[in-house]
Amino acid sequence: MSTMLFPLIACCLIGAAYSDHHDRTNQLPDRSTIVHLFEWKWRDIADECERFLAPKGFGGVQISPTSENLIIHLPDGSRTWYERYQVMSYKLKTRSGDREDFLNMTRRCNQVGVRVYADVVVNHMTGDHPSNIGTGGSTADFKKYSYPAVPFNQSHFHHPFCIINDYNNAAEVRNCQLLGLKDLNQTVPYVRQKIVRFFNKLIKLGVAGIRVDAAKHMWPTDLGAIYSRLHNLNTAFGFRPNTKPYIYQEVIYYGNEPIKPQEYTDYGDVTEFKVGSELKNVFRGHNALKWLVSWGEAWALSPSETALVFIDNHDTQRGNDVLTYKESRAYKAAIAFMLAHPYGEPRIMSSYFFEKNEQGPPSDSQENIVSPSINKDDTCGNGWVCEHRWRQIYQMVAFRNAVRGTFIQNWWDNGNNQIAFSRGKKGFIVFNVEGRDLDQRLQTGLPPGEYCDVITGKKEGNTCTGTKVTVSNDGTAHIRVPAHAEDMHLAIHVGKESSLQTS
């Protein structure tokens, strides 16, 4: 970024308006952050809502697609993750569970205040494959574009011989097949009706919102027409009357493309892919941290009030050069910045270990998904990464909850790769990517007292397992973040997870 912009941007940032997403996302007021429990089974998600997500203050969970998908085997006989995005019908039958399991999950998660967001795939059905059996037993005739379990036939699809080749042609992107997947025509009233019924079925069963896969590949006006027919959320699950579902749409945009996120924001939020690509460069040390003083719209990002933000997702972590669990030090710092900053509605990824991009979730010899095991230190086993259970991540969810309603203040940087800022008088965070120790007395903005750094450890009773920070009467504290520490950041806040005592 140009240094000529710094004075203007800095003056506009400090004290910038705080954007509260709770009314739109349907999360409880004292909660925040969506976690994507990728490929988890519904009953395992229900367990996780009760034993971990609710106690740690998570606001919601994004689940994998609920609709029946084509069974796809890799050459080694295993199943792939992307089969979940090749739809055979709108039956609620996948490797994650059936309708009964789904309802069990939404009831239990809503009862403990964790909202469920369904990932829906309605841009397309399947591609062509040797096998034509779905997870619910449905079959299809791919050459005839026949999906009798819906039913759909060729009249419900765009032109069968049109494949997307030119992403600079907006009509081609929206009317042609993505990667050979049979492209539904959402302008057709019958297709709209089937999609609306599917969405409303999920709403009736207790979801708080919907993530729309491949929204970029559908016409915004078609989506708007579909959303306008959605029911209000089901009050039997604890939602207030006349509450609209939270809609967030996958619109991949990195700049210089004809299809732009703002075409969709009249109808719902959009996924802001540039957050992951920009913060990757910052926390790998390729772009100075000092420029984060202007983080947000000044970086050509979507407006905060319409942006669903994330560092990685199930697609980008498989080859799009973003930070993932495999680069954990920089990854944890990028997530911490995202959660500490008020820009956007955050979502974090929770993965399984994979070596090959096509690799599906951990499963047994009968192709059943294996449940994560829970270790004594709260981490996962059985092949699951469970980033949301990393201390440095779930502690930052608590940080975000504690600082709700505040602005960015007390910005400090060393002119390069050491920065710090407060969230009003409620939270303070420091980052060091300099390659040398950060050793400064800084203004934290916090009330005087002792605080536990939530990155290096936890608060246990009236002591810290990690670094203790003492804030003086003037709000300053001596802060030290060694160059080669396990984590490149430190964070304290007034919440019960950090504050030992305040005067």
From TrEMBL:
Residue ranges annotated for the Alpha-amylase C-terminal domain, each copy included: 409-497
Catalysed reactions, semicolon-separated: Endohydrolysis of (1->4)-alpha-D-glucosidic linkages in polysaccharides containing three or more (1->4)-alpha-linked D-glucose units
Cofactor(s) the protein requires to work: Ca(2+); chloride
Domain (Glycosyl hydrolase family 13 catalytic) ranges: 32-400
Keyword annotations from UniProtKB, A to Z: Calcium, Carbohydrate metabolism, Chloride, Disulfide bond, Glycosidase, Hydrolase, Metal-binding, Signal
Family: Belongs to the glycosyl hydrolase 13 family.
Family matches, as PANTHER family: ALPHA-AMYLASE
Quaternary structure and partners: Monomer.
Protein name: Alpha-amylase
